[in-house]
Amino acid sequence: MHFLLPLLILLVAFPKIDRRIAFSLAFLAFIPDFDFFINFTHRFLFHNVFFPVILSSVIYLFTRNIQIFWISLYYLISHIILDLTVGAVALFWPLYERMFEIIIYFDSRLNFVFKINTYPLGVVEEQMTSRPSYFFTQEGIIVIMLFLIMLVIAYKKEIKRFFKR
Questions:
Q1: Where residue 88 falls among pLDDT bands split at 50, 70, 90?
Q2: What is the 3-state secondary structure (H, E, C) of the chain?
Q3: Full-prediction pTM beyond 0.70?
Q4: Structural domain of residue 89, as residue ranges?
Q5: Are residues 16 and 30 in the same domain?
Q6: Are 107 and 142 within one domain?
Q7: Number of structural domains found in the chain
């Protein structure tokens, strides 16, 4: 979900973009989830508005390419926006110690519902154990499965050749 959706939006919005850059930088969309592997910092440490700006600036310092800066910033921010819709994110951490969550849906009467909830951050460990955020969401797993099915269909001949050896 974090890789495919922002990549497709970027390619549709900017059809003349260098596709090699768009595809290679799309992996940056996974970077914010690396805080999952740091004890009790998932959705805090790398899921705030400061991290994408800092990391994209570092990338710019190495590449000196403004297009790469903007694309990397786009991918990193897209991750945070997508995560806001499937759980709370400490959007302004460490300056503001509250978590934000966006709830958006149509109810049974087709009324559009849009809410922004905030939760006290509290102790990081307490927040992670009381409101766990899962590394893979149900939607993300379904998208990955559909993507794998499409790959198998697209490369059916190559897969058959590989297994005939």
A1: confident
A2: CCCHHHHHHHHHHCCCCCHHHHHHHHHHHHHHHHHHHCCCCCCCCCCCCHHHHHHHHHHHHHHCCHHHHHHHHHHHHHHHHHHHCCCCECCCCCCCCEEEEEEEEECCCCCEEEEEEEEECCCHHHHHHHCCCCCCCHHHHHHHHHHHHHHHHHCHHHHHHHHHC
A3: yes
A4: 4-133
A5: yes
A6: no
A7: 2
